[in-house]
């Protein structure tokens, strides 16, 4: 027969600690109103009994949920996992819990996820990029919900942002390839529709190439999902469109890895035959053979700043910076070299 387990209540804690339930409640929810000695006494009893405070009751008392939401495009990419881990760490230090949702790069799904987070009482929301439906952002503003854009430096409606200029960031890699004498380029990018970061990187690359009088035809700009198999197919399309390509600019490291794998399968030597650059600087990128030249993004700093800024908004701190610029730099490794001689 299954044994019934008694649910420990705040009354049990109060009796064991020989204090009132109101004192226990204040010790949990407003610890600064209780002496350190009494707070420790109650804390010891809570641990001994295994009492878990009721989050709903706490929210009603404080009129705050203690939760913050975030919507990211996907949970598949390691760059988001790394960033969210830091975001959560910073929030936990400030006493907040994190609710995570993903949109699959779809603004309609993202708008629904924003509403779902609001119905769960989140006190603030972090959004990745700036491709959200404007009605969804207006909803946040109308309800006075603090929010911040991550991963981009600009923001609609004069909103807050923690990130970098994707157009300028990609130019670091393009400039290096131009200095290495490359003239035949291909671009392997993520789907640019509803993805301001992917689009800005393509635009930035084309801007700098154009200044060097290199104008790419649409056939050598291939869009594909951020998947290895799709990247390999994209690499094939690029070489079929222009077999003379000597340098491929990739929208992120996943695409670059797929291109590198396909190049090796086809018997091409990287970087002697083709140079490849990525974007993000994932952990695996430095361990590839050859290791990947890429644009390093300080994802930890970016998400940490976003978390601290968002909690400051919630706590009504004034004179907050509109934009928090993330450090970006080119990491030169083994996948790039001088253009091959004709």
Automatic annotation (TrEMBL):
<dbReference type="Pfam" id="PF00356">
    <property type="entry name" value="LacI"/>
</dbReference>
<dbReference type="InterPro" id="IPR010982">
    <property type="entry name" value="Lambda_DNA-bd_dom_sf"/>
</dbReference>
<feature type="domain" description="HTH lacI-type">
    <location>
        <begin position="8"/>
        <end position="62"/>
    </location>
</feature>
<keyword id="KW-0805">Transcription regulation</keyword>
<keyword id="KW-0804">Transcription</keyword>
<keyword id="KW-0238">DNA-binding</keyword>
<dbReference type="InterPro" id="IPR000843">
    <property type="entry name" value="HTH_LacI"/>
</dbReference>
<dbReference type="InterPro" id="IPR001761">
    <property type="entry name" value="Peripla_BP/Lac1_sug-bd_dom"/>
</dbReference>
<dbReference type="Pfam" id="PF00532">
    <property type="entry name" value="Peripla_BP_1"/>
</dbReference>
<dbReference type="GO" id="GO:0000976">
    <property type="term" value="F:transcription cis-regulatory region binding"/>
</dbReference>
<dbReference type="InterPro" id="IPR028082">
    <property type="entry name" value="Peripla_BP_I"/>
</dbReference>
<dbReference type="GO" id="GO:0003700">
    <property type="term" value="F:DNA-binding transcription factor activity"/>
</dbReference>
<protein>
    <submittedName>
        <fullName>LacI family transcriptional regulator</fullName>
    </submittedName>
</protein>
């Amino acid at each position: 027969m299954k044994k019934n387990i008694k649910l420990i209540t705040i009354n049990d804690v109060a009796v064991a600690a020989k204090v009132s339930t109101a004192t226990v409640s204040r010790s949990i929810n407003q610890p600064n109103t209780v002496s350190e000695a009494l707070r420790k006494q109650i804390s010891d009893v809570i641990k001994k009994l295994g009492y878990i405070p009721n989050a709903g009751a706490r929210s009603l008392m404080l009129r705050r949920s203690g939760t913050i939401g975030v919507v990211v495009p996907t949970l598949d990419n390691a760059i988001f996992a790394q960033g969210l881990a830091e975001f959560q760490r910073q929030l936990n230090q400030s006493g907040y819990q994190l609710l995570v949702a993903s949109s699959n790069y779809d603004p309609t799904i993202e708008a629904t996820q924003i509403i779902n987070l609001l119905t769960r009482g989140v006190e603030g929301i972090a959004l990745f990029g700036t491709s959200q439906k404007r009605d969804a952002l207006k909803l946040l503003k109308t309800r006075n919900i603090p929010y911040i854009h991550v991963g981009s430096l600009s923001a609609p409606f004069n909103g807050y942002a923690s990130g970098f200029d994707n157009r300028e960031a990609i130019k670091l890699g393009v400039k290096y390839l131009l200095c290495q004498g490359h003239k035949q380029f291909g671009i392997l990018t993520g789907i640019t529709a509803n993805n301001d970061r992917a689009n800005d990187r393509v635009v930035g690359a084309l801007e700098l190439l154009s200044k060097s009088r290199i104008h790419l035809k649409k056939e050598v700009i291939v869009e594909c999902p951020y998947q290895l198999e799709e990247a390999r197919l994209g690499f094939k399309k690029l070489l079929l469109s222009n077999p003379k390509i000597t340098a491929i600019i990739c929208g992120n490291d996943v695409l670059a890895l797929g291109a590198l794998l396909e190049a090796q399968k086809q018997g091409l030597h990287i970087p002697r035959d083709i140079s490849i650059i990525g974007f993000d600087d994932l952990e695996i990128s430095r361990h590839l053979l050859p290791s990947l030249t890429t644009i390093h993004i300080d994802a930890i700093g970016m998400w940490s700043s976003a978390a601290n800024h968002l909690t400051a908004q919630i706590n009504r701190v004034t004179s907050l910076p509109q934009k928090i610029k993330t450090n970006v730099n080119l990491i030169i490794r083994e996948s790039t070299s001088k253009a091959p001689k004709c």
